[in-house]
Amino acid sequence: MSDKMPLDPEDQTPAASEAVAPLIVPRHKIRVRVMQALYAHIVGDLPPDEVFAYLLDELREAAQAEAPHNAEFLQELFFGVVREMPTLREIIERHLRGWTWERLFLVDKCIILCGVYELMHFPDIPLRVTLNEWIEIAKAYGTQRSPSFVNGLLDAIRRTLAADPTSPVSRKPF
C-alpha cells in the first residue's frame, strides 16, 4: 500500500502531506480570475478577446505549461459565459424571487453567470464542487449577503436543471 495521498480530482493539487509541489494555477484561482475578467468585460464594455488577452492570457499560458486541462477550463469558462450570457441571464431571471436582474450586485451577477455555465457545461466537475467553489468566491468578493444568495440561487437552478432528464446536469454526480 502506498503512503502517498491521492490527488484532489478538482484542482489537481496534492494533499498537504505529500511532498509534490502544488499547482501554481489551481482551478479556484482560475475561477476567481475569470469572474474578475467577466466583470471587466461588462463594466468596460470591452471586446472579450481584448479582456482575455489583457487579464487571462498569462494565466492561461501558466496553466498550459503545468496542466493543459486547466488552461482549457479557463478559456472555455470565460468565452462560454460571454457567448451564452443572454441564455444564462434568462435562466437566472426565472429563478429570482423578490429580485430583478438590474438590482443584483454586479459581482454577484458575474459569480452566478459563471456558476450556472459551469453547472451546465463541465460534466466532469461534480455539482457540489461547482456550488462550493462559487459560494467561496462570493464570500471573498461579494457582500455579506452574497454567499447565501449565491448558494440559494445556484442550488435552485441546479435542482431545476437536474429535474430535466435531457439536461447534462441530471447526469452529473453531486
Written account of the structure:
- The protein has one domain: NusB-like (N-utilizing Substance Protein B Homolog, Chain A, Orthogonal Bundle).
- It is mainly α.
- It is built from 7 helices and no strands.
What is the count of structural domains? 1
Indicate the overall shape.
globular
Please state the second-level CATH architecture.
Orthogonal Bundle
SSE succession: HHHHHHH
CATH class value: Mainly Alpha
For the largest beta-sheet, the strand count, sense and barrel status come to:
none
Class by helix and strand content? mainly alpha
Portion in beta strands: under 5%
CATH topology name, in short, is: N-utilizing Substance Protein B Homolog, Chain A
| Proportion of helical residues | 55-70%
The span between the termini is 29 Å
The count of DSSP E runs of length 2 or more, i.e. the number of strands, is 0
Number of helices: 7
Gyration radius, rounded = 17 Å
CATH superfamily grouping: NusB-like
Kindly report the average pLDDT value. 89
